[in-house]
Design goal:
two-stranded antiparallel sheet; 446 residues; alpha+beta
Length: 446
């Protein structure tokens, strides 16, 4: 009992003024005369009595607080409106019109954000929307189309070129001659005479007029001439010797293959990101359910503690402890709600959905089947057909002038490893095998 009082004093559970009385409490002299079992029972009863007295004294030393009304004992503070709106249940499956990405610079208004809703979608639907709305994938598709056009342009150098030329024009000339003397004295006939032509006049009389070629004194004559011309040409050219043609086509094909591998790698990366975000959202959904059930259990236990305290069966310290546990679990639930809201927005960003649409996972939680491949088969499957490796490490071609040396007899029947790989330390997980299984490690190459 003395050690118990010292421990309670050190923990601060009893005041210092009560410690001397407890330490100086005399031990009963009749304990030695009683049997050992009776002494143990009596010691336990006195210990419980002293502990009950100490708890009652501690309950009196704690500052009093007003007892809340019975109806508000289990009440919790209200959550923020934005957190409730971000965690509301889905109103239905996502519609095709809501899955279309908006313009890149189309910023939403506050009214659109407040009027947004939550729509449920499956993992397959999420992947389809991500592949259709991804701006990076669309940019890479354009890069692949541009590389394909470059290959087609390079392949066009193997064909002849046809060129056509056409030209047309008009050329005109005008000359004017001024006569200082009339030309009626040249003797060319009445056409050059000032009165050589008779023109019918009024009353049937003939009036003499000048001929059409008569030029009076100081007169002039103008002559105009013009010429039209059209020219055309058609050429067929073909380069018999072009040493840059084949390398250009090979370079264009290599660029096209690299762009295709980049697109495939981005496709795989986006699929992985969307799958991880979807599974994280499912996990946050289940955590909200778990923490909500935990908080409901805490409220039930707190109600039982209040009833026991009202009946005088438990001290107020137990009620305070249950309230602290209930507050901690309530904080955990609020954090889980915030994590679910963040997971929803992360998935919406990956899917490039409008800001007014919040996605929610609709697939049920099922246990995934066991992975059918072992470690070595998984590594080989990861290396085979990997577009990232093909983009980074193109296959090397053997040198035409240098022959590979023959492999030793130890490596003729089994593949070999490079010296650096064979000398590298193996991880612990890779060396652990089942009992009785032999580790077949290829020998290092010389």
């Amino acid at each position: 009992m003395r050690n118990r009082v010292l421990a309670l004093l050190w923990l601060g559970l009893i005041p210092a003024r009560l410690a001397p009385a407890a330490l100086s409490a005399p031990r009963p002299a009749s304990l030695s005369s009683q049997p050992r079992q009776a002494q143990s029972t009596e010691l336990i009863e006195r210990s419980w009595q002293r502990l009950d007295a100490e708890l009652r004294a501690l309950d009196q030393l704690l500052p009093g607080e007003p007892e809340p009304p019975v109806g508000n004992v289990l009440s919790t503070p209200e959550l923020p409106a934005n957190l409730i709106r971000a965690n509301q249940p889905a109103s239905g499956p996502i519609q095709p019109a809501d899955a279309v990405a908006g313009p890149p610079l189309d910023l939403p208004t506050p009214q659109q954000l407040q009027a947004g809703g939550v729509a449920s979608l499956s993992l397959e639907k999420a992947l389809a929307i991500a592949f259709a709305n991804s701006a990076s994938l669309q940019a890479q598709r354009d890069q692949v189309a541009a590389a394909l056009a470059s290959v087609q342009a390079a392949m066009g150098t193997y064909w002849p070129t046809i060129s056509a030329f056409a030209a047309g024009g008009y050329e005109g000339n005008r000359s004017t001659t001024t006569a200082k003397k009339p030309n009626d004295n040249l003797g060319f006939g009445p056409m050059f005479s000032p009165n050589g032509v008779l023109t019918p006049g009024p009353g049937g009389t003939a009036i003499p007029t000048a001929g059409p070629f008569y030029v009076p004194n100081g007169g002039s004559v103008a002559a105009t001439s013009g010429e039209w011309g059209v020219e055309g040409d058609l050429q067929l050219n073909y380069a018999l010797l072009d040493f840059a043609r084949t390398p250009t086509v090979k370079a264009a094909r290599a660029s096209l293959e690299q762009q295709r591998n980049t697109y495939a790698n981005q496709l795989r990366s986006l699929q992985l990101q969307v799958s991880e975000a979807y599974y994280q959202l499912q996990q946050d959904e289940q955590l909200v359910r778990v923490y909500d059930a935990n908080l409901r259990n805490d409220l039930v236990i707190l109600q039982d503690s209040l009833d026991l305290k009202q009946a005088g069966l438990v001290p107020r310290l137990d009620v305070l402890r249950r309230r602290a546990i209930q507050a901690a679990d309530e904080e955990t639930l609020i954090q889980a709600l915030a994590d679910r809201a963040v997971a929803r927005r992360k998935l919406a960003v990956l899917l490039n959905l409008p800001a007014s649409v919040t996605p929610n996972a609709s697939d049920p939680i099922v246990v995934q089947p066991r992975w059918p491949l072992d470690l070595e088969a998984s590594l080989l499957a990861a290396y085979r057909g990997n577009p990232e490796l093909e983009r980074s490490w193109p296959p090397a071609r053997p040198w035409p002038s240098r022959a590979r040396p023959p492999r030793p007899d130890c490596c003729q029947s089994s593949p070999c490893l490079p010296a650096a790989v064979a000398a590298a330390p193996k991880p612990a997980s890779a060396t652990s095998r089942l009992p009785g299984a032999a580790a077949a490690v290829p020998p290092p190459c010389p």
